[in-house]
Design goal:
Layout (H helix, E strand, L loop, with lengths): L3 E7 L2 H12 L8 E9 L4 H14 L5 E4 L7 E6 L5 E5 L5 H17 L10 E9 L8 E10 L8 H13 L13 H9 L3 H11 L36 H14 L3 H17 L19
Parallel strand pairs: 5-6
Antiparallel strand pairs: 1-4, 2-7, 3-4, 6-7
Helix pairs in contact: 2-4, 7-8
Pfam families: Condensation (PF00668)
Protein name: Condensation domain-containing protein
GO molecular function: catalytic activity; phosphopantetheine binding
Length: 296
Amino acid sequence: MSHELEDVWPLSPLQEGLVYHSLLDGEGPDVYAVQLILDFEGAVDAGALRAAGQALLDRHANLRAAFWVDDLDQPVQVVARDVELPWEEIDLSHLPVAETEAELRVFADAERARRFDLDRPPLLRMALIRHRDGEGAAGADRSRLVITQHHVLVDGWSSPLMVRELLALYDAKGDDSDLPPVTPYREYLVWLSEQDRDGAREAWTTALAGAEPTLLSTPAAAPVLDGAAPVPALPERFVTHVPQETTAALQAQARRLGVTLNTLVQCAWGVLLGRMTGQDDVVFGAVVSGRTPEIP
């Protein structure tokens, strides 16, 4: 690592899990490489946007962290000083609209598939793509900013805050003097170290006593031919639209029971898992976006 060292931190438990799974399969795409895509109408000042991205990196030490694992009893995150933002500019304005859309998708997919080296900061890069939304005089200038980053740096709660700050820095040409001071990530790690982990572990062990994993059978994987590399498993998104009358009926039932629609749907999911597994007691996880007030 050629950067000047600024600080060394431990990992949070969630970061430990993300790093572990990222290193588990070092060949295929990293499922924890995430992407934010911002579309701009009209002219974009590429220099100002790049300066905003660099200022964002300079302000937040955790965005400059690399993760060291080898030959260590416990992994650490090493914060580097003066890290340059990886930046790329691409011009697709000469392409027809149909080709442009395809090229935008191909580029975003390729960027997400390009793995980060966890021990080389920053685990974040930006690309600005210029294009047009029509042919000739009927078309208008458009730009797309593709932000690819590793989930170990930023959680879902922080992502929109990061984008909001990036746009504020863009308006200010990279000047952060009007922005509030940054709450260091180090403060969260200090707070975390002061929590009663043994007590929390005991409480959850008691709560989940006797629980068995909820295992669903899946279709058999295709056989791997001799000499061929196995295809890595990637998460998939399945989207279905519930009919309006079904949604209305669910909302009415939730009101009658005095629960939220989310609670009702999760209850239905639990019942379905029970039927599929033949178990009366099932356990499943649900991701919640939120933070308790005591977290700094």
